[in-house]
Structures are given as C-alpha cells and as structure tokens.
Amino acid sequence: MSDEQAEELPAGVERRTFDGRERLSTRGEPVYGEPVDSDGWRAWDAGRSKLGAMLELDMDTGLVGGETVLYLGAASGTTVSHVADFAGPTYAVEFAPRPVRDLVGVAEDRDNLFPLLKDARDPESYAHVVESGIDCLVMDVATRGQATVAVRNRQFLADDGRLLMAVKARSEDVTADPDDVFDDVLDELESAYEILETGRLDRFHADHLGIVARPE
Ligand SMILES: C[S@@+](CC[C@H](N)C(=O)[O-])C[C@H]1O[C@@H](n2cnc3c(N)ncnc32)[C@H](O)[C@@H]1O
After folding, report:
1. Is 150 annotated as a binding residue?
2. Which of 17, 75, 100, 158 has the least C-beta neighbours within 10 A?
C-alpha cells in the first residue's frame, strides 16, 4: 500500500526506526522492556498488542489522539500504556488483582491513566467513576462472552464514538472454526453497534479478529 493510501496514525503515534526497522511508537516511560530512542519514543510491539496490530494492519480506527478512552482488559498495561501516551483521560479496567498491581505502577508515570480493579461484565460497578460520552472503547478481554461485554459497555460511548475490539476465537470455543465464532460475535454486536470494519489479526495474533464499530 502506498503512503497516500495508508490510514493516518493518531497524533502522538509515529513510525520510527528501532534497530534498523521501522516500528510504531509512542512517547512515554518504557513499560515492558521495549526499545526507546534518544528522543524518548518507545517501540509499540504489535506482537504483544492487538490495538498495535490493528494500526499496523492499517485498519481505520478513527483515532486522532487526545480522545477519552475506556479500555477493558488492561492486564499489566502493555497496550494501555501506549494508549495513555497519545490519548486523553484513559480508564483501564482489569479484574485480576496481580496485573493491576503492575498497572498501578504504569499509571504512576501517566497522570491521565486511571486503573480500575473491576469486572467488565458489570459496568454498573464503575459507572460512577467513568465519565459518559467516551470517545473510544477499546476491548481485549479474551474471555467467553466478548460481544456481551461490548454491548453492556456501549452505554459509556458517545454517539459518534468508536468501539475498537479484538476477539479471540479460542476464548469463545476452542474447537469451533474461528470464522464461525467471529460470525456469532458480529451478530450479537449488531444489536448495539454498526460494524465499520473487520480484519484478521493473524499476522500478529493467531485466530483473532479486529473490529471497528460505532454505536447504532
Ligand atoms: C489478552 S489479555 C489483555 C492484554 C492487554 N490488553 C494488552 O494488550 O496489554 C486479557 C485480559 O483481560 C482480563 N479480563 C478478562 N475478562 C475480564 C473481565 N470480565 N473484566 C476485566 N478484565 C477481564 C484478563 O484478566 C486479562 O488480563
């Protein structure tokens, strides 16, 4: 794809050269041993990040930089740290206490990153903390019922907001054909969202689908 056709990266995300290879990067404190250049830009490893893979694969995420973000499935902060580097207020939900301890450390270097030890299946438990009219809902929970979680959390999104979601087929059903799993997930999502784009992330993450959608 020529440069003219490539989707624009959000402000605060750049392609820079690390060890002779051009890679996505954001500017901030390092988190997971990623290389950092002399200007303080750190490589964003798409092999460890579904959102990074969606950007590398040139999906039209609609991200421009500076948006408010609700991130579900933050784990220890690999991807959400990059998001907080270029976004505005970033609420990071994770229900496993161990990774949240690391996530709190990541947030110490980022005053716009707010870790929440909460279950994404129960949005009412954090509705009093997360502002409404969020610009972007990012989801990477890799658990059964991924579409249900997206539908339940639709309430936080602005009408012109975006859902950026990674679906792991094996989390829904280890034996099913991934394409059948993705069809079921998309069917359920369509009760609350209009699907704008889908793309397999297999170059970076086997049997994962990237989805861009907006509230219906
Ligand atoms: C694939 S990992 C996320 C990796 C992370 N997004 C990244 O790129 O750095 C999925 C995470 O979702 C979390 N998770 C699964 N179900 C959840 C739920 N219902 N509520 C909150 N977190 C959940 C898991 O504990 C796990 O840490």
Report:
1. no
2. 17
